[in-house]
Protein backbone atom coordinates (compact mmCIF):
# COMPACT_ATOMS: atom_id res chain seq x y z
CA UNK A 1 0.00 0.00 0.00
CA UNK A 2 2.88 2.39 0.73
CA UNK A 3 5.50 2.32 -2.00
CA UNK A 4 8.74 4.25 -1.88
CA UNK A 5 10.72 4.26 -5.12
CA UNK A 6 14.18 5.73 -5.71
CA UNK A 7 13.40 8.49 -3.26
CA UNK A 8 16.22 11.01 -2.77
CA UNK A 9 16.75 14.34 -1.07
CA UNK A 10 19.46 16.93 -1.61
CA UNK A 11 19.61 20.03 0.56
CA UNK A 12 20.95 23.18 -1.06
CA UNK A 13 22.34 23.36 -4.57
CA UNK A 14 25.62 23.74 -6.45
CA UNK A 15 28.80 23.46 -4.41
CA UNK A 16 27.00 23.54 -1.08
CA UNK A 17 24.60 20.75 -1.99
CA UNK A 18 24.34 17.99 0.58
CA UNK A 19 22.80 14.71 -0.49
CA UNK A 20 21.13 13.29 2.58
CA UNK A 21 18.97 10.56 1.11
CA UNK A 22 20.50 8.89 -1.91
CA UNK A 23 18.19 6.18 -3.16
CA UNK A 24 15.49 4.50 -1.15
CA UNK A 25 13.16 1.81 -2.36
CA UNK A 26 10.88 -0.26 -0.16
CA UNK A 27 7.22 -1.11 0.26
CA UNK A 28 4.95 -1.45 3.25
CA UNK A 29 2.03 -3.85 3.03
CA UNK A 30 -1.32 -3.35 4.68
CA UNK A 31 -1.32 -4.33 8.34
CA UNK A 32 2.45 -4.54 8.48
CA UNK A 33 4.68 -3.19 11.22
CA UNK A 34 7.82 -1.91 9.53
CA UNK A 35 10.74 -0.42 11.41
CA UNK A 36 13.26 1.75 9.65
CA UNK A 37 16.57 1.63 11.45
CA UNK A 38 19.83 3.35 10.65
CA UNK A 39 22.80 5.11 12.21
CA UNK A 40 22.16 8.55 13.70
CA UNK A 41 22.17 11.38 11.19
CA UNK A 42 21.35 9.10 8.27
CA UNK A 43 18.30 11.07 7.15
CA UNK A 44 15.59 8.97 8.78
CA UNK A 45 13.56 12.00 9.75
CA UNK A 46 13.99 13.47 6.27
CA UNK A 47 12.61 10.23 4.86
CA UNK A 48 9.54 10.36 7.10
CA UNK A 49 8.92 14.00 6.22
CA UNK A 50 9.00 13.11 2.52
CA UNK A 51 6.60 10.21 3.01
CA UNK A 52 4.23 12.34 5.05
CA UNK A 53 4.27 15.05 2.40
CA UNK A 54 5.71 17.68 4.74
CA UNK A 55 8.80 18.01 2.55
CA UNK A 56 9.12 17.52 -1.21
CA UNK A 57 11.56 14.89 -2.47
CA UNK A 58 14.38 15.91 -4.84
CA UNK A 59 13.72 12.90 -7.04
CA UNK A 60 11.92 9.59 -6.92
CA UNK A 61 8.46 9.14 -5.54
CA UNK A 62 6.39 7.85 -2.70
CA UNK A 63 2.93 6.59 -3.45
CA UNK A 64 0.10 5.50 -1.28
CA UNK A 65 -2.48 3.01 -2.59
CA UNK A 66 -1.19 3.83 -6.06
CA UNK A 67 -1.51 7.59 -5.62
CA UNK A 68 1.56 9.80 -5.63
CA UNK A 69 2.16 11.69 -2.41
CA UNK A 70 2.34 15.36 -3.38
CA UNK A 71 0.85 17.28 -0.47
CA UNK A 72 -0.05 15.95 2.94
CA UNK A 73 -2.13 12.76 2.49
CA UNK A 74 -5.31 12.57 4.52
CA UNK A 75 -4.76 8.97 5.50
CA UNK A 76 -1.49 9.33 7.38
CA UNK A 77 -1.00 10.15 11.03
CA UNK A 78 2.28 11.22 12.56
CA UNK A 79 3.74 10.72 16.01
CA UNK A 80 6.87 12.74 16.73
CA UNK A 81 9.66 12.17 19.19
CA UNK A 82 9.08 15.56 20.82
CA UNK A 83 5.71 15.00 22.47
CA UNK A 84 6.02 18.19 24.54
CA UNK A 85 6.19 20.20 21.36
CA UNK A 86 3.79 18.22 19.22
CA UNK A 87 0.96 18.39 21.78
CA UNK A 88 -0.48 21.88 22.02
CA UNK A 89 -0.13 23.15 25.60
CA UNK A 90 -3.18 25.43 25.38
CA UNK A 91 -5.48 22.51 24.65
CA UNK A 92 -6.52 19.78 27.08
CA UNK A 93 -5.76 16.13 26.37
CA UNK A 94 -9.14 15.51 24.75
CA UNK A 95 -9.01 18.79 22.81
CA UNK A 96 -5.62 17.80 21.44
CA UNK A 97 -6.96 14.46 20.30
CA UNK A 98 -10.11 15.99 18.82
CA UNK A 99 -8.35 18.79 16.94
CA UNK A 100 -7.49 16.87 13.72
CA UNK A 101 -10.88 15.15 13.50
CA UNK A 102 -13.12 18.06 14.47
CA UNK A 103 -13.89 19.21 10.97
CA UNK A 104 -14.38 15.68 9.63
CA UNK A 105 -16.98 14.30 11.99
CA UNK A 106 -20.11 15.33 13.81
CA UNK A 107 -19.64 16.39 17.40
CA UNK A 108 -20.92 13.16 18.97
CA UNK A 109 -18.72 11.06 16.70
CA UNK A 110 -15.75 13.22 17.47
CA UNK A 111 -16.35 12.81 21.21
CA UNK A 112 -16.78 9.07 20.84
CA UNK A 113 -13.58 8.69 18.78
CA UNK A 114 -11.68 10.73 21.34
CA UNK A 115 -13.03 8.62 24.21
CA UNK A 116 -12.21 5.38 22.42
CA UNK A 117 -8.68 6.50 21.59
CA UNK A 118 -8.05 7.59 25.19
CA UNK A 119 -9.35 4.23 26.39
CA UNK A 120 -7.08 2.38 23.96
CA UNK A 121 -3.98 4.03 25.44
CA UNK A 122 -5.25 3.66 29.01
CA UNK A 123 -5.78 7.34 29.80
CA UNK A 124 -9.56 7.38 30.24
CA UNK A 125 -9.53 9.61 33.29
CA UNK A 126 -7.11 12.22 31.97
CA UNK A 127 -9.20 13.80 29.21
CA UNK A 128 -9.51 17.17 30.97
CA UNK A 129 -5.87 17.43 32.01
CA UNK A 130 -3.42 19.56 30.14
CA UNK A 131 -0.58 17.63 28.48
CA UNK A 132 2.05 19.35 30.65
CA UNK A 133 0.38 17.99 33.76
CA UNK A 134 1.21 14.46 32.64
CA UNK A 135 4.46 12.47 32.67
CA UNK A 136 6.49 12.07 29.49
CA UNK A 137 5.23 8.56 28.81
CA UNK A 138 1.64 9.65 29.31
CA UNK A 139 2.12 12.59 26.97
CA UNK A 140 3.38 10.28 24.26
CA UNK A 141 0.32 8.09 24.89
CA UNK A 142 -1.82 11.15 24.21
CA UNK A 143 0.04 11.72 20.94
CA UNK A 144 -0.57 8.08 20.03
CA UNK A 145 -4.25 8.43 20.96
CA UNK A 146 -4.49 11.48 18.71
CA UNK A 147 -3.12 9.39 15.84
CA UNK A 148 -5.51 6.51 16.61
CA UNK A 149 -8.59 8.75 16.73
CA UNK A 150 -7.64 9.98 13.26
CA UNK A 151 -8.06 6.39 12.00
CA UNK A 152 -5.14 6.58 9.58
CA UNK A 153 -4.31 3.92 7.03
CA UNK A 154 -0.67 4.25 7.99
CA UNK A 155 0.73 5.46 11.27
CA UNK A 156 4.16 7.06 10.89
CA UNK A 157 6.27 7.31 14.03
CA UNK A 158 9.50 9.28 14.19
CA UNK A 159 11.69 8.01 17.05
CA UNK A 160 8.59 7.98 19.23
CA UNK A 161 10.18 6.49 22.34
CA UNK A 162 13.61 8.14 22.21
CA UNK A 163 12.78 10.73 24.88
CA UNK A 164 11.34 8.52 27.61
CA UNK A 165 13.04 6.38 30.24
CA UNK A 166 13.78 2.69 29.63
CA UNK A 167 10.83 1.33 31.63
CA UNK A 168 8.33 3.64 29.97
CA UNK A 169 9.90 2.81 26.66
CA UNK A 170 9.21 -0.91 26.89
CA UNK A 171 5.70 -0.15 28.17
CA UNK A 172 5.04 2.00 25.12
CA UNK A 173 6.55 -0.60 22.78
CA UNK A 174 4.14 -3.20 24.14
CA UNK A 175 1.29 -0.69 23.90
CA UNK A 176 2.05 -0.28 20.18
CA UNK A 177 2.13 -4.04 19.62
CA UNK A 178 -1.17 -4.37 21.46
CA UNK A 179 -2.82 -1.57 19.45
CA UNK A 180 -1.57 -3.09 16.24
CA UNK A 181 -2.97 -6.50 17.17
CA UNK A 182 -6.24 -4.92 18.27
CA UNK A 183 -6.87 -2.54 15.37
CA UNK A 184 -4.73 -4.02 12.59
CA UNK A 185 -3.16 -0.65 11.80
CA UNK A 186 -0.17 -0.35 9.49
CA UNK A 187 2.81 1.17 11.30
CA UNK A 188 6.06 2.62 9.98
CA UNK A 189 8.36 3.38 12.88
CA UNK A 190 11.71 5.10 12.51
CA UNK A 191 14.28 4.39 15.21
CA UNK A 192 18.01 4.26 15.82
CA UNK A 193 17.52 1.52 18.40
CA UNK A 194 18.26 -1.88 16.84
CA UNK A 195 16.74 -3.92 19.69
CA UNK A 196 13.56 -1.93 19.45
CA UNK A 197 13.31 -2.39 15.68
CA UNK A 198 13.77 -6.16 15.86
CA UNK A 199 11.40 -6.50 18.81
CA UNK A 200 8.57 -4.54 17.18
CA UNK A 201 8.77 -5.18 13.47
CA UNK A 202 7.57 -7.68 10.92
CA UNK A 203 10.28 -6.33 8.67
CA UNK A 204 13.23 -4.07 9.38
CA UNK A 205 14.47 -1.71 6.67
CA UNK A 206 18.16 -1.18 7.43
CA UNK A 207 19.59 2.09 6.19
CA UNK A 208 23.25 2.98 5.67
CA UNK A 209 24.93 6.22 6.75
CA UNK A 210 24.21 9.44 4.85
CA UNK A 211 23.78 9.69 1.86
CA UNK A 212 21.31 6.98 2.73
CA UNK A 213 20.52 3.84 0.79
CA UNK A 214 18.66 0.73 1.83
CA UNK A 215 21.27 -1.78 2.96
CA UNK A 216 18.95 -4.69 3.45
CA UNK A 217 15.37 -5.47 4.30
CA UNK A 218 15.33 -8.06 7.06
CA UNK A 219 12.29 -10.25 7.67
CA UNK A 220 11.61 -10.72 11.35
CA UNK A 221 9.86 -14.02 11.84
CA UNK A 222 9.73 -13.96 15.61
CA UNK A 223 6.58 -15.49 17.10
CA UNK A 224 3.64 -13.28 18.03
CA UNK A 225 2.59 -12.03 20.49
CA UNK A 226 5.96 -10.72 21.52
CA UNK A 227 7.12 -10.36 25.07
CA UNK A 228 9.85 -8.14 26.47
CA UNK A 229 11.41 -11.09 28.30
CA UNK A 230 10.71 -14.30 26.40
CA UNK A 231 11.04 -12.84 22.90
CA UNK A 232 14.34 -11.23 23.76
CA UNK A 233 15.59 -14.51 25.25
CA UNK A 234 15.11 -16.30 21.95
CA UNK A 235 18.21 -17.36 20.09
CA UNK A 236 16.56 -16.09 16.91
CA UNK A 237 16.19 -12.62 18.44
CA UNK A 238 19.89 -12.46 19.25
CA UNK A 239 20.77 -13.61 15.73
CA UNK A 240 18.56 -11.01 14.04
CA UNK A 241 19.77 -8.30 16.35
CA UNK A 242 23.36 -9.24 15.64
CA UNK A 243 22.72 -9.33 11.92
CA UNK A 244 21.17 -5.85 11.81
CA UNK A 245 23.87 -4.46 14.05
CA UNK A 246 26.59 -5.92 11.83
CA UNK A 247 24.99 -4.44 8.72
CA UNK A 248 24.97 -0.97 10.22
CA UNK A 249 28.41 -1.19 11.80
CA UNK A 250 30.03 -2.34 8.56
CA UNK A 251 28.60 0.59 6.61
CA UNK A 252 29.54 3.14 9.22
CA UNK A 253 33.06 1.70 9.56
CA UNK A 254 33.66 1.61 5.81
CA UNK A 255 32.47 5.20 5.44
CA UNK A 256 34.64 6.39 8.32
CA UNK A 257 37.57 4.45 6.82
CA UNK A 258 37.04 6.14 3.47
CA UNK A 259 36.88 9.50 5.18
CA UNK A 260 40.23 8.95 6.90
CA UNK A 261 41.86 7.84 3.66
CA UNK A 262 40.64 10.72 1.52
CA UNK B 1 4.74 31.01 63.37
CA UNK B 2 3.70 33.50 60.66
CA UNK B 3 2.18 35.70 63.34
CA UNK B 4 5.34 35.61 65.39
CA UNK B 5 7.44 36.60 62.42
CA UNK B 6 5.24 39.53 61.57
CA UNK B 7 5.34 40.63 65.21
CA UNK B 8 9.12 40.40 65.19
CA UNK B 9 9.20 42.43 62.01
CA UNK B 10 6.92 45.10 63.46
CA UNK B 11 9.04 45.30 66.59
CA UNK B 12 12.08 45.77 64.44
CA UNK B 13 10.38 48.50 62.44
CA UNK B 14 9.41 50.37 65.59
CA UNK B 15 12.61 49.95 67.51
CA UNK B 16 14.96 50.02 64.54
CA UNK B 17 18.49 48.81 64.94
CA UNK B 18 18.44 49.41 68.69
CA UNK B 19 16.67 46.10 69.21
CA UNK B 20 19.69 44.17 68.05
CA UNK B 21 22.09 46.26 70.10
CA UNK B 22 20.07 45.51 73.18
CA UNK B 23 20.30 41.76 72.68
CA UNK B 24 23.94 40.89 72.34
CA UNK B 25 23.60 37.74 74.45
CA UNK B 26 21.33 35.97 71.97
CA UNK B 27 23.29 37.08 68.93
CA UNK B 28 22.28 34.04 66.84
CA UNK B 29 18.56 34.38 67.45
CA UNK B 30 17.99 37.79 65.77
CA UNK B 31 19.84 36.63 62.64
CA UNK B 32 17.54 33.65 62.36
CA UNK B 33 14.58 35.89 63.09
CA UNK B 34 15.51 38.15 60.17
CA UNK B 35 15.83 35.14 57.89
CA UNK B 36 12.34 34.08 58.89
CA UNK B 37 10.88 37.48 57.96
CA UNK B 38 9.06 37.14 54.63
CA UNK B 39 10.47 39.03 51.66
CA UNK B 40 7.43 41.23 51.25
CA UNK B 41 7.81 42.41 54.84
CA UNK B 42 11.45 43.30 54.24
CA UNK B 43 10.47 45.15 51.08
CA UNK B 44 7.82 47.18 52.83
CA UNK B 45 10.09 48.01 55.74
CA UNK B 46 12.78 49.11 53.29
CA UNK B 47 10.25 51.38 51.59
CA UNK B 48 9.08 52.78 54.93
CA UNK B 49 12.70 53.32 55.95
CA UNK B 50 13.48 55.23 52.79
CA UNK B 51 10.46 57.47 53.29
CA UNK B 52 11.49 58.07 56.89
CA UNK B 53 14.98 59.13 55.81
CA UNK B 54 13.60 61.54 53.19
CA UNK B 55 11.22 62.90 55.80
CA UNK B 56 14.05 63.60 58.24
CA UNK B 57 16.34 65.09 55.58
CA UNK B 58 13.56 67.29 54.21
CA UNK B 59 12.39 68.55 57.59
CA UNK B 60 15.92 69.24 58.79
CA UNK B 61 16.53 71.40 55.72
CA UNK B 62 19.31 69.27 54.24
CA UNK B 63 17.32 68.93 51.01
CA UNK B 64 16.12 71.84 48.91
CA UNK B 65 12.64 73.21 49.41
CA UNK B 66 11.69 71.54 46.10
CA UNK B 67 11.68 68.18 47.82
CA UNK B 68 8.87 68.26 50.37
CA UNK B 69 8.63 65.79 53.27
CA UNK B 70 6.66 62.64 52.35
CA UNK B 71 4.04 63.35 55.01
CA UNK B 72 3.26 66.64 53.26
CA UNK B 73 2.96 64.80 49.94
CA UNK B 74 0.59 62.29 51.54
CA UNK B 75 -1.48 65.16 52.82
CA UNK B 76 -1.55 66.76 49.37
CA UNK B 77 -2.48 63.39 47.92
CA UNK B 78 -5.49 63.19 50.19
CA UNK B 79 -6.52 66.69 49.05
CA UNK B 80 -6.01 65.76 45.40
CA UNK B 81 -8.07 62.58 45.63
CA UNK B 82 -11.00 64.51 47.08
CA UNK B 83 -10.74 67.13 44.33
CA UNK B 84 -13.02 66.61 41.34
CA UNK B 85 -10.79 68.67 39.03
CA UNK B 86 -7.91 66.28 39.65
CA UNK B 87 -10.11 63.33 38.71
CA UNK B 88 -11.05 65.02 35.48
CA UNK B 89 -7.31 65.46 34.72
CA UNK B 90 -6.74 61.79 35.46
CA UNK B 91 -9.62 60.93 33.14
CA UNK B 92 -8.07 63.07 30.37
CA UNK B 93 -4.75 61.24 30.69
CA UNK B 94 -6.35 57.81 30.87
CA UNK B 95 -8.57 58.45 27.87
CA UNK B 96 -5.83 59.51 25.50
CA UNK B 97 -3.62 56.71 26.81
CA UNK B 98 -6.30 54.02 26.40
CA UNK B 99 -7.38 55.39 23.03
CA UNK B 100 -3.84 55.35 21.69
CA UNK B 101 -3.25 51.81 22.99
CA UNK B 102 -6.48 50.58 21.46
CA UNK B 103 -5.47 51.94 18.04
CA UNK B 104 -1.98 50.48 18.39
CA UNK B 105 -3.40 47.04 19.17
CA UNK B 106 -6.10 47.00 16.51
CA UNK B 107 -3.59 48.07 13.87
CA UNK B 108 -0.39 46.53 15.23
CA UNK B 109 -1.53 42.96 15.93
CA UNK B 110 -3.10 42.24 12.51
CA UNK B 111 -0.24 44.02 10.72
CA UNK B 112 2.32 41.98 12.64
CA UNK B 113 0.45 38.78 11.83
CA UNK B 114 0.22 39.65 8.16
CA UNK B 115 3.89 40.57 7.84
CA UNK B 116 5.09 37.76 10.08
CA UNK B 117 3.30 34.96 8.30
CA UNK B 118 5.18 35.51 5.06
CA UNK B 119 8.96 35.29 4.85
CA UNK B 120 8.98 37.40 1.66
CA UNK B 121 6.84 40.21 3.01
CA UNK B 122 8.86 40.26 6.24
CA UNK B 123 12.12 40.35 4.27
CA UNK B 124 11.07 43.22 2.05
CA UNK B 125 9.59 45.39 4.79
CA UNK B 126 12.37 44.86 7.31
CA UNK B 127 14.42 47.86 6.23
CA UNK B 128 11.46 50.24 6.44
CA UNK B 129 10.43 48.92 9.84
CA UNK B 130 13.94 48.96 11.24
CA UNK B 131 14.25 52.60 10.18
CA UNK B 132 10.93 53.79 11.57
CA UNK B 133 11.02 51.89 14.83
CA UNK B 134 13.87 53.63 16.69
CA UNK B 135 12.36 57.11 16.15
CA UNK B 136 11.58 58.38 19.67
CA UNK B 137 7.85 59.19 19.78
CA UNK B 138 8.52 62.57 21.35
CA UNK B 139 10.56 63.53 18.27
CA UNK B 140 7.37 63.27 16.21
CA UNK B 141 5.57 65.59 18.62
CA UNK B 142 5.84 68.72 16.41
CA UNK B 143 4.33 66.78 13.53
CA UNK B 144 1.54 65.54 15.76
CA UNK B 145 0.80 69.09 16.93
CA UNK B 146 0.77 70.30 13.32
CA UNK B 147 -1.60 67.54 12.32
CA UNK B 148 -3.93 67.40 15.29
CA UNK B 149 -3.42 70.56 17.33
CA UNK B 150 -2.79 70.29 21.06
CA UNK B 151 -5.88 68.36 22.13
CA UNK B 152 -6.65 64.77 22.97
CA UNK B 153 -6.39 63.66 19.33
CA UNK B 154 -2.74 64.63 19.23
CA UNK B 155 -2.02 62.67 22.40
CA UNK B 156 -3.84 59.62 21.09
CA UNK B 157 -1.81 59.83 17.90
CA UNK B 158 1.48 59.93 19.79
CA UNK B 159 0.56 57.10 22.14
CA UNK B 160 -0.62 55.02 19.18
CA UNK B 161 2.62 55.76 17.33
CA UNK B 162 4.85 54.75 20.23
CA UNK B 163 2.83 51.68 21.22
CA UNK B 164 2.34 50.50 17.64
CA UNK B 165 5.98 49.53 17.10
CA UNK B 166 6.14 47.57 20.31
CA UNK B 167 2.92 45.68 19.57
CA UNK B 168 3.95 45.16 15.94
CA UNK B 169 7.34 43.71 16.81
CA UNK B 170 6.09 41.48 19.59
CA UNK B 171 3.40 40.12 17.26
CA UNK B 172 5.97 39.62 14.50
CA UNK B 173 8.30 37.71 16.81
CA UNK B 174 5.41 35.69 18.20
CA UNK B 175 4.13 34.65 14.79
CA UNK B 176 7.62 33.74 13.63
CA UNK B 177 8.43 31.76 16.76
CA UNK B 178 5.78 29.05 16.37
CA UNK B 179 7.30 25.71 17.28
CA UNK B 180 8.17 23.89 14.03
CA UNK B 181 7.12 20.56 15.54
CA UNK B 182 3.68 21.93 16.44
CA UNK B 183 3.40 23.44 12.98
CA UNK B 184 4.41 20.15 11.30
CA UNK B 185 1.97 18.24 13.48
CA UNK B 186 -1.09 20.22 12.46
CA UNK B 187 0.08 20.33 8.85
CA UNK B 188 0.51 16.55 8.80
CA UNK B 189 -2.99 16.17 10.23
CA UNK B 190 -4.29 18.19 7.31
CA UNK B 191 -5.64 21.21 9.21
CA UNK B 192 -6.64 24.01 6.88
CA UNK B 193 -4.41 27.07 6.85
CA UNK B 194 -7.05 29.16 8.56
CA UNK B 195 -7.39 26.53 11.30
CA UNK B 196 -3.61 26.24 11.65
CA UNK B 197 -3.55 29.98 12.19
CA UNK B 198 -6.39 30.05 14.70
CA UNK B 199 -5.36 26.92 16.61
CA UNK B 200 -1.59 27.17 16.61
CA UNK B 201 -0.15 30.47 15.42
CA UNK B 202 -2.48 32.71 17.40
CA UNK B 203 -2.10 30.93 20.77
CA UNK B 204 1.67 30.65 20.26
CA UNK B 205 1.93 34.37 19.59
CA UNK B 206 -0.38 35.26 22.48
CA UNK B 207 2.40 35.26 25.07
CA UNK B 208 4.53 37.62 22.99
CA UNK B 209 1.56 39.87 22.33
CA UNK B 210 0.75 39.98 26.05
CA UNK B 211 4.31 41.06 26.82
CA UNK B 212 4.03 43.67 24.07
CA UNK B 213 0.83 44.92 25.62
CA UNK B 214 2.45 45.42 29.02
CA UNK B 215 5.45 47.20 27.50
CA UNK B 216 3.25 49.33 25.27
CA UNK B 217 1.03 50.29 28.21
CA UNK B 218 4.04 51.46 30.22
CA UNK B 219 5.56 53.41 27.33
CA UNK B 220 2.15 54.81 26.40
CA UNK B 221 1.70 56.28 29.87
CA UNK B 222 5.15 57.89 29.74
CA UNK B 223 4.42 59.40 26.34
CA UNK B 224 1.01 60.68 27.45
CA UNK B 225 2.34 62.49 30.48
CA UNK B 226 5.44 63.77 28.70
CA UNK B 227 3.24 65.21 25.94
CA UNK B 228 0.99 66.90 28.48
CA UNK B 229 4.03 68.42 30.18
CA UNK B 230 5.52 69.71 26.93
CA UNK B 231 2.47 70.78 24.92
CA UNK B 232 0.22 71.62 27.84
CA UNK B 233 -2.76 69.58 26.79
CA UNK B 234 -5.10 68.69 29.61
CA UNK B 235 -4.11 65.79 31.86
CA UNK B 236 -1.95 64.82 34.80
CA UNK B 237 1.19 66.12 33.10
CA UNK B 238 -0.38 69.55 32.64
CA UNK B 239 -1.59 69.57 36.24
CA UNK B 240 1.93 68.78 37.43
CA UNK B 241 3.21 71.80 35.50
CA UNK B 242 0.50 74.03 36.98
CA UNK B 243 1.40 73.05 40.52
CA UNK B 244 5.05 73.68 39.71
CA UNK B 245 4.25 77.22 38.53
CA UNK B 246 2.17 77.77 41.63
CA UNK B 247 5.09 76.61 43.75
CA UNK B 248 3.12 73.80 45.41
CA UNK B 249 5.87 71.20 45.61
CA UNK B 250 3.79 68.82 47.75
CA UNK B 251 0.78 68.98 45.42
CA UNK B 252 3.06 68.46 42.43
CA UNK B 253 4.56 65.34 43.97
CA UNK B 254 1.10 64.11 44.89
CA UNK B 255 0.26 64.15 41.17
CA UNK B 256 3.53 62.39 40.37
CA UNK B 257 2.59 59.71 42.88
CA UNK B 258 -0.84 59.40 41.25
CA UNK B 259 0.79 58.92 37.84
CA UNK B 260 3.03 56.25 39.34
CA UNK B 261 0.10 54.48 41.01
CA UNK B 262 -1.79 54.42 37.71
CA UNK B 263 1.21 52.78 36.06
CA UNK B 264 1.49 50.18 38.81
CA UNK B 265 -2.25 49.45 38.77
CA UNK B 266 -2.38 49.04 35.00
CA UNK B 267 0.70 46.78 35.00
CA UNK B 268 -0.73 44.61 37.77
CA UNK B 269 -4.12 44.44 36.06
CA UNK B 270 -2.57 43.31 32.80
CA UNK B 271 -0.50 40.69 34.61
CA UNK B 272 -3.59 39.25 36.29
CA UNK B 273 -5.38 39.18 32.95
CA UNK B 274 -2.41 37.47 31.32
CA UNK B 275 -2.17 34.82 34.03
CA UNK B 276 -5.82 34.07 33.51
CA UNK B 277 -5.79 33.91 29.70
CA UNK B 278 -2.38 32.27 29.32
CA UNK B 279 -2.63 29.92 32.30
CA UNK B 280 -1.26 27.12 30.11
CA UNK B 281 1.98 28.93 29.35
CA UNK B 282 5.14 27.64 31.03
CA UNK B 283 5.50 30.99 32.81
CA UNK B 284 2.12 30.64 34.57
CA UNK B 285 1.59 26.90 34.94
CA UNK B 286 0.22 25.35 38.08
CA UNK B 287 0.56 21.63 38.74
CA UNK B 288 3.10 21.01 36.04
CA UNK B 289 4.75 17.62 35.86
CA UNK B 290 8.47 18.25 35.91
Could you please describe the fold and organization of this structure?
The complex is a heterodimer of chains A (262) and B (290). Chain A is α/β, with parallel strands linked by helices. Chain A has two domains: 27-75 and 153-262, P-loop containing nucleotide triphosphate hydrolases (Rossmann fold, 3-Layer(aba) Sandwich), CATH 3.40.50.300; 84-151, no CATH class. Chain A is built from nine helices and ten strands. In chain A, strands 5-4-1-2-10-9-3-8-7-6 form a ten-stranded mixed sheet, with helices on both faces. The relative contact order of chain A is 0.17. The mean pLDDT of chain A is 89. With 290 residues, chain B is mostly helical. Chain B has two domains: 2-63, no CATH class; 78-277, MetI-like (MetI-like fold, Orthogonal Bundle), CATH 1.10.3720. Chain B has 13 helices and no strands. Chain B has helices at residues 2-15, 18-21, 28-36, 39-59, 70-81, 84-116, 119-132, 141-148, 152-176, 180-188, 193-231, 236-246, 249-277. Classes of the chains: A alpha/beta (262), B mainly alpha (290).
SSE arrangement:
The complex is a heterodimer of chains A (262) and B (290).
Chain A: E1 2-11, E2 18-28, E3 33-37, H1 44-51, E4 59-64, E5 67-68, E6 76-79, H2 83-86, H3 93-98, H4 107-120, H5 136-149, E7 154-158, H6 166-183, E8 186-191, H7 194-200, E9 203-207, E10 212-219, H8 230-233, H9 235-261
Parallel strand pairs in A: 2-10, 3-8, 3-9, 6-7, 7-8
Antiparallel strand pairs in A: 1-2, 1-4, 4-5, 9-10
Helix pairs in contact in A: 4-5, 7-9
Chain B: H1 2-15, H2 18-21, H3 28-36, H4 39-59, H5 70-81, H6 84-116, H7 119-132, H8 141-148, H9 152-176, H10 180-188, H11 193-231, H12 236-246, H13 249-277
Helix pairs in contact in B: 5-13, 6-9, 6-11, 6-12, 8-9, 9-11, 10-11, 11-12, 11-13, 12-13
